[in-house]
Design a protein that fits this description.
Blueprint: E1 5-7, E2 13-22, E3 25-29, E4 35-39, E5 55-60, E6 70-76, E7 82-84, H1 89-99, E8 110-118, E9 121-128, E10 134-142, E11 144-146, E12 149-152, H2 158-174, E13 177-184, E14 191-194, H3 200-211, E15 215-223, E16 227-233, E17 235-236
Parallel strand pairs: 10-13, 12-14, 13-15, 14-17
Antiparallel strand pairs: 1-16, 2-3, 2-5, 3-4, 5-6, 6-7, 8-9, 9-10, 11-12, 15-16
Helix pairs in contact: 2-3
Length: 238
């Protein structure tokens, strides 16, 4: 089976990180030694990724009214690994994976709707299985990987906690199943765990969800200058 993938723009330009003045902006230097302001699509803390002097690749804008010169697509780590910087790609990859029966845990499901509101939250996918039972799926993008250990989140997330609580309520109220799919947007993770030291509330509610029968699974990706591709399931150690 061909692995599902998403192509990047074919006109990516290279620059190097100078600073990060806020969550959504990088100041970088290009080949002409000019400073350029770029949009950073991933608002996470990214402590192991965004470092001065690292190479980034960005898609330039052709909109003269835009406040930035383009959007950051990739960061190249010191070991040569590329990291995708668009957290929204996790949802697109999840959709491709579901449509192509890539995720073994969800091979018997079909997409009913993308972005489904239930309770007080909007979830990424509403699925159904071969028996017609509904399945609620939430997708999370992971970029914190340290010494082979993928971890989520890299900053406290009240929204993430609310989503997991709602998944538990969904299962209890409807009797239907639910799951959380973590997609690691780089290729050096060997294990996954929730970041209890960063957000103990999220780690606690995720553990409760697992105890309640919410499915939790993790996949990594292969990333290069041309594309991001779903790769393989990552084991969990928590």
């Amino acid at each position: 089976m061909e692995l599902p993938y998403i192509n990047f723009s074919d006109n990516l330009l290279e620059a190097k990180i100078i600073s990060r003045p806020n969550r959504f902006v990088l100041i970088c230097g290009n080949e002409a030694s000019n400073e350029i302001k770029l949009h950073l699509p991933d608002p996470g803390r990214l402590p192991l990724i965004i470092k001065e002097g690292r190479e980034i690749y960005y898609k330039p804008t052709d909109n003269p009214e835009r406040k930035t010169a383009g959007s950051v697509i990739l960061v190249k780590l010191d070991n040569g690994v590329f990291v995708s910087m668009n957290s929204h790609l996790a949802n697109d990859l999840a959709e491709l994976g579901l449509e192509n029966k890539f995720f073994s845990e969800l091979a018997d499901t079909e997409i009913i709707r993308r972005e489904f509101t239930w309770g007080n939250s909007r979830f990424d996918f509403l699925l159904n299985d071969v028996n017609g039972a509904e399945y609620l799926l939430e997708v999370k993008s992971v970029n914190l990987v340290d010494d082979g250990q993928a971890c989520f989140p890299d900053a406290p997330t009240t929204r993430g906690v609310r989503h997991i609580k709602e998944l538990i309520k969904w299962k209890n109220d409807t009797g239907n199943l639910a799951g959380v799919l973590f997609i690691v947007q780089q290729e050096q993770a060997e294990l996954f765990r929730p970041c209890e030291e960063i957000d103990p509330d999220f780690a606690e509610i995720l553990a409760k969800a697992r105890e309640c029968g919410i499915d939790i699974f993790v996949y990594d990706t292969k990333v290069d200058l041309n594309k991001i591709m779903l790769n393989q399931r990552i084991e969990q150690n928590w």
